[in-house]
């Protein structure tokens, strides 16, 4: 059976992408949590991953003696043997890969100022960020444009009609927007709510909230657990 190594569900947006993809498509796997202690080279987190292979980051997908790292590589590997990872139509598939690649490499301001935190409610911090950080506002505007273009072309309720990796890729973004209560237009807000209601996403969020594993270095806006 496939084995997926992930980090803490409350914080690990990259782990969430592969986990949600596999759960939503019904791809069987064994989950292995590698707890965040720190990201220093000598941390137990880094040591545990290095014993498996890859780049020392989560997620890692292990298929017998093969180790696949990086979420895009994992998605492409699963695409070779499982339907539904990408849209069936070649044009839609190319567009889906484009928006995922942009998500993968971009939106640094949103990532930096609004770190992933599933169980938190940080609306006050979000209001300050929205007021002071023009780059965050620009990132959210670009995300809304990507969503609205795809939804208009493919009819929704998900980006390319049926679920695909594109929706898994943006699921952590939907959580960030929720955690920090950042403003969205009506159509983008409806899409984000639909993603958060997906069985896989709701399950991840429930399990993240149940972790109760406060990691101070992942909590720039809080000094202790609420």
Offer a few descriptive terms.
single chain; Glutaredoxin; Glutathione S-transferase Yfyf (Class Pi), Chain A, domain 2; four-stranded mixed beta sheet; 10 helices; 4 strands; 54% helix
Briefly say what this structure is:
It contains ten helices and four strands. The protein has 226 residues and is an alpha+beta fold.
Q: Would you give an account of this structure?
A:
The protein is of the alpha+beta class. The protein has 2 domains: 2-83, Glutaredoxin (3-Layer(aba) Sandwich), CATH 3.40.30; 90-207, Glutathione S-transferase Yfyf (Class Pi), Chain A, domain 2. Helices cover 54% and strands 8% of the residues. The protein is built from 10 helices and 4 strands, in the order βαβαββαααααααα. It has helices spanning 13-24, 44-52, 71-79, 90-105, 108-113, 123-132, 134-154, 165-179, 186-197, 199-209, and strands at 2-6, 29-33, 60-63, 66-69. The chain has a 4-stranded mixed beta sheet, covered by helices on one side. It is globular, with a radius of gyration of 17 Å. The protein starts with a strand and ends in a 17-residue tail after the last helix. The mean pLDDT is 95.
């Amino acid at each position: 059976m496939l084995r997926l190594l992930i980090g803490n569900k409350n914080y690990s947006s990259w782990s969430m992408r592969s986990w949600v993809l596999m759960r939503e498509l019904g791809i069987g796997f064994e989950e292995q949590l590698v707890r965040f202690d720190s990201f220093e080279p000598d941390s137990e987190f880094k040591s545990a991953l290095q014993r498996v292979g890859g780049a020392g980051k989560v997620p890692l997908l292990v298929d017998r003696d093969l180790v696949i790292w990086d979420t895009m590589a994992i998605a492409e590997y699963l695409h070779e043997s499982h339907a539904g990872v990408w849209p069936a139509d070649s044009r839609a598939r190319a567009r889906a890969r484009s928006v995922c690649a942009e998500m993968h490499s971009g939106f640094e301001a949103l990532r930096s100022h609004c770190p992933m935190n599933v169980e938190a409610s940080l609306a006050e911090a979000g209001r300050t960020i929205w007021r002071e950080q023009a780059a965050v506002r620009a990132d959210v505007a670009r995300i809304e444009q990507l969503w609205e273009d795809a939804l208009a072309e493919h009819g929704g309720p998900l980006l390319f009609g049926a679920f695909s990796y594109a929706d898994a890729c943006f699921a952590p973004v939907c959580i960030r927007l929720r955690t920090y209560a950042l403003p969205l237009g009506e159509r983008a807000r409806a899409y984000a709510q639909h993603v958060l209601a997906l069985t896989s996403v709701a399950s991840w969020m429930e399990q993240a909230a149940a972790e109760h594993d406060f990691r101070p270095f992942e909590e720039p806006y809080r000094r202790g657990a609420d």
